[in-house]
Amino acid sequence: MDDYGTLKKALIKKALLISLAVACIFLVLDFKSAAKGVVLGSLFSVVEFKLMALRLERRFVHQGRGRDYFGLIGRYFLLAIPLIVALKLPSINFFATVGGIFAVKGAIFYHVLISNRHLSVKTEDSPS
Length: 128
Hints:
- The two termini are 29 Å apart.
- By secondary structure, the chain is mainly alpha-helical.
- Helix content is 87%, strand content 0%.
- The longest helix is centred in the middle third of the chain and has 30 residues, at 32-61.
């Protein structure tokens, strides 16, 4: 369970760092609405990831199926909130918000494709 908690924290840190870097790039390029959208989307993405991780932990302890659908629908409604806010407020870029929602997914791809590749190269090069 310790590895699972470490992985969750690492993925959340990577997602927030990626979104922070993208938001800073947008600020340097003077796209403030895009920076706000990335930050808004990534924050809701991290919250959704945390809720999904909690549901997974509870799923292993309890075997209730009826509440799983409520959790899935609740997560969809949670991800709809930043999209609706971005549509209603002209100061937040909608497309950047959509991109921010994919921050955790991007961190997972980064972790699986790039981080693990460097680890496997290091272990293959080390003498046994």
